[in-house]
């Protein structure tokens, strides 16, 4: 490891990314300059072209200088980075603070055989280090050095089980030498079959999101085209269907098209999803066009989140997510996949192989009937109020259709009641929740940042309470709630979560 | 099982500080209602706008001066134990929040102009998933609480 400590630079192609960043930072003054020059009548073309040439030259020079100034040095337990054009900055990222290391390769990176490397740490909302072009081997070296791994595997596994009973790990003969690691066989590998990725994409419910985006884009396009006289409303209108059947067919076709598009995009993103565990670290690879790698130490995982939307539940599948500091919540889903889609009954085995120490609940405690009111009252009340204007103002005797709202709310509340469940075992809480989407969170006790028992006035009369467990993540507060359970139960559970020994039996 | 509820109270001066804040709200409300009244007279606005504003301002003022400070004072309790901070709070929904000492990353004090006038400080402490506070302690007590939390949080091996 002689050359380990030598200061290094990124691959020269990263100059390109530095230039892009400089142009991005300069975009507003640049636009102002161009507009003011272009709108000024007496200006000679030479000025404009000269200005553009000057700016380009400056951007290239500054980009090259940025690249030259961006120096990193990898030490045993830390990464040192020095950068900055005018203000020089020095950054030290200790390995102990690293939450995850992410590499990806877009088109440009793939052309030059480099990778984009992103290091996230605890306590900062945005990535600590972003390097746009690092040679693959170098990225691997940084990853190996910065993610707590094989050497600490046993400590990590211990940590997961709260130092208590050690789970039967499949094989934990991880090599002691981290440098030899990539060549050694992983402890567990799981590759999601392509057919299942396709099913995942097709059932991903992001259809409605893409619908909204496309709708928004479309209205923009119409405006822009109209501005240049390229869009003639008359022709467009003549192309619109005239009959109701025509409208239905057209919108069905549009929905189908968007769905296919969305499916293709998500398939490309998740294609070849492979998760690998080597000792105490996970490596997740995916992507067809843009290849991404994400690695995280097991001991950085805050919770496991199992999600089933109605369609996937119908097919008997679930998706499994990891709640880490790099987790982002999008469309109500947590986007740190451990596995996009896995048969629901295989989830325990999957977790056992990849997140050893997580305990699958062997049953669930359920809220009693007295909780039902709590689950139904609020959604029903809101929906009923929302339905009133519909009842009054929907024309043509169709006012009653507004009643679908309270009916849906009733169903939603009832499903939430049905799905609600919790279980405490071996220092870990399992919380099952959700309405149309059934979700399960597995939260180790020692990962809980803080917790809270809430009693609303309505709950007070029924002697009920809600227990809230908060774990850490980067983009959102991961709050897991066990709602409307008997107050005594909530307090007893909290007592155990605080590490107090419930020696005397309650009740 | 024996579960001790937190029993330490906030400083009595907090009541006056919060009421002061309530009076400031009332003053701001009066200004807004006054402006609306002027607009109503000047531009023939419908009367219900100023009426509604006046009612809202009056309700907020009464709540913030007479009700909220008292209830808040009566409800808020805290305890700083070896391994956790225990807070009892909440006006309508009663909450009991427990923050394990090992999860606390920073502890700070802050003081706005009103609290300063009454010699009070707010102790805030943060975890990797959000902040909590003990509002309105007198300066000496706040200092004591801050050092105690800092000491207890540091001696344990913090790991995220």
Short structural summary:
The complex is a heterodimer of chains A (507) and B (160). Chain A is α+β, with helices and mostly antiparallel strands and 507 residues long.
Q: How would you characterize this protein structure?
A:
The complex is a heterodimer of chains A (507) and B (160). With 507 residues, chain A is α+β, with helices and mostly antiparallel strands. Chain A has helices at residues 14-39, 45-69, 107-112, 136-146, 153-160, 194-202, 207-227, 233-239, 244-270, 310-314, 347-354, 372-393, 404-419, 457-462, 487-497; strands at 71-74, 78-83, 89-94, 98-105, 114-121, 129-135, 188-191, 274-278, 281-286, 291-297, 303-308, 317-323, 329-330, 333-334, 337-343, 421-425, 428-433, 438-444, 450-455, 464-471, 478-486. A seven-stranded antiparallel sheet of chain A has the order 6-5-4-10-9-8-7. A six-stranded antiparallel sheet of chain A has the order 15-12-11-18-17-16. In chain A, helix 1 (14-39) packs antiparallel against helix 2 and helix 6 (194-202) crosses helix 9. Mean pLDDT of chain A is 80; it is low at 150-181 and 329-333. Chain B has two domains: 13-73; 78-155, PH-domain like. Helix content of chain B is 51%, strand content 24%. Chain B contains four helices and six strands, in the order ααββββαββα. In chain B, a hairpin with a 4-residue loop joins strand 2 and strand 3 (94-100). The longest helix of chain B is centred in the first third of the chain and has 31 residues, at 13-43. The two termini of chain B are 30 Å apart. The interface between A and B is medium-sized, with 34 and 23 residues. Strand 19 of chain A pairs antiparallel with strand 3 of chain B.
Topology:
The complex is a heterodimer of chains A (507) and B (160).
Chain A: H1 14-39, H2 45-69, E1 71-74, E2 78-83, E3 89-94, E4 98-105, H3 107-112, E5 114-121, E6 129-135, H4 136-146, H5 153-160, E7 188-191, H6 194-202, H7 207-227, H8 233-239, H9 244-270, E8 274-278, E9 281-286, E10 291-297, E11 303-308, H10 310-314, E12 317-323, E13 329-330, E14 333-334, E15 337-343, H11 347-354, H12 372-393, H13 404-419, E16 421-425, E17 428-433, E18 438-444, E19 450-455, H14 457-462, E20 464-471, E21 478-486, H15 487-497
Antiparallel strand pairs in A: 1-2, 2-3, 4-5, 4-10, 5-6, 7-8, 8-9, 9-10, 11-12, 11-18, 12-15, 13-14, 16-17, 17-18, 19-20, 20-21
Chain B: H1 13-43, H2 47-75, E1 77-80, E2 84-89, E3 94-100, E4 106-110, H3 113-117, E5 120-127, E6 130-138, H4 139-155
Antiparallel strand pairs in B: 1-2, 2-3, 4-5, 5-6
